[in-house]
């Protein structure tokens, strides 16, 4: 855990000075320290170990299948690392939004990398008109079941269970049960749902907060489900028409995954906070300058949303036992040197 309390705003600092016995704290779990440089190592190992134990990685002739997975990047890096070490061939499908560094990382870890934009030409009989990388994984694994094993990370409940079994438990133990808020972005939904489930079972009043890039649909879908209307969804759709989609990699979605829908719409999530893409990136740069840590855009999104929660807690007044906000520093910023930490890229793309 990394103590990020000193990065909170002046209002929170003033609150902590006035109420030293019940301070507001922000800590980040340093998932970029994992071998694959992201929290996705957890789900990659869990999903492959369980699939292997069920015999799903072997065809009817006893031959190893090729592991096939759609990924925005980090899960692909982790599957390439772990799948290759387990002795399997690994193929990752991503798209041109994926940073050059993550593409290189996937290949370096031993996997074959396919770009979604190229696959309809590579598989004309299977993928004509199919451009979404998740759909491409499904079609290829359905059409060639003896050749490919579908990781299906967006719908695979082993993903959620990995974070229930490990990340949630670790957060509880590392904070000695003092965690009051958990802030996390969603892509597959595995982290926020798995950790949320674990923490809610331990302490029912823990607040689970979704941090979400401002052009993602997840906050709007959550609000719509909770009877708060469709205003956010309408705003997001208009923004996408004008500006295109989410710039943050590995955070936000246009629709709910099956993991996010498990038991209801984002069952364990109490609220969502939208964060502008470039506020996420600015936060990454702040973390680099003030903490000496390089982290990716989803971590920036998490810290920015955590600031909102901390400010609100300061406005609400002292709480018995204080406030401990936990978030994830999901991946290493070295994967985004050509984007987040590139002044020219920022200047060209920042539309705030």
Keywords:
Tryptophan synthase beta chain-like PALP domain-containing protein; TrpB-like_PALP_sf; alpha/beta; TrpB-like_PALP; 4-stranded parallel sheet; 352 residues; 6-stranded mixed sheet; Cys_Synth/Cystath_Beta-Synth
Oligomer: single chain
Which geometry do the CA atoms define?
globular
Count of alpha and pi helical runs: 15
Question: H/E element string?
Answer: EHEHEHEHEHHHEHEHEHHHEHHEH
Biggest pleated-sheet summary: 6 strands, mixed
Q: What's the Cα radius of gyration?
A: 20 Å
* Span of the ends, CA to CA: 32 Å
What share of the residues does DSSP label as strand, in percent? Answer: 5-15%
Outline the low-pLDDT stretches: none
Q: Which strand order spans the largest sheet, edge to edge or round the barrel?
A: 1-2-10-7-8-9
Helix content: 40-55%
Derived from helix and strand composition plus strand pairing, the structural class reads alpha/beta
Mean pLDDT: 97
Q: What is the β-strand count? A: 10
Write up this protein.
It is a single chain. This protein is an alpha/beta fold and about 350 residues long. Helices cover about 45% and strands about 15% of the residues. The protein has helices at about 10-20, 40-55, 75-85, 100-110, 120, 125, 135-145, 155-175, 190-200, 220-225, 230-245, 260, 275-290, 295-315, 345-350, and strands spanning about 1-5, 25-30, 65-70, 90-95, 110-115, 150, 180-185, 205-215, 270-275, 325-330. The strands form 2 sheets. A 6-stranded mixed β-sheet has the order 1-2-10-7-8-9, with helices on both faces. Strands 5-4-3-6 form a 4-stranded parallel β-sheet, with helices on both faces. Helix 4 (about 100-110) links the parallel strand 4 (about 90-95) and strand 5. Helix 1 (about 10-20) crosses helix 14 (about 295-315) and helix 13 (about 275-290) crosses helix 14. The protein is globular, with a radius of gyration of 20 Å. It starts with a strand and ends with a helix.
